[in-house]
Amino acid sequence: MEDMEKVTERTWLGRSPEPWLLDRFHAYALTHTVFHLTNWGLEPARLASSP
């Protein structure tokens, strides 16, 4: 298992400067959307890349 801090740093939220806010409702919605877009993580390239 990878270090969670290193994994988080690779996400768009982890790279965003603070302060940011993500409440439980929106975190669920975001996770749900990402899972569907990436075929439950099997196709991560289906997400747009950050510049």
Please explain how this structure is put together.
The protein has a domain at 22-51. 47% of the residues lie in helices and 0% in strands. The protein contains 3 helices and no strands. It has helices at residues 4-9, 12-15, 24-37. The chain is globular.
Main features:
about 50 residues; mainly alpha
Topology readout:
Blueprint: H1 4-9, H2 12-15, H3 24-37
Largest sheet: none
E-strand count: 0
User: What percentage of residues falls in helices of 4 or more residues?
Assistant: 40-55%
Radius of gyration: 12 Å
H/E element order: HHH
Strand content: under 5%
Helix count?
A: 3
Low-confidence stretches: none
Mean pLDDT: 77
Overall geometric form: globular
The separation of the N and C termini measures 28 Å
Structural class: mainly alpha
Concise synopsis of the structure shown:
The N and C termini lie far apart (28 Å). The protein has 51 residues and is mainly α.
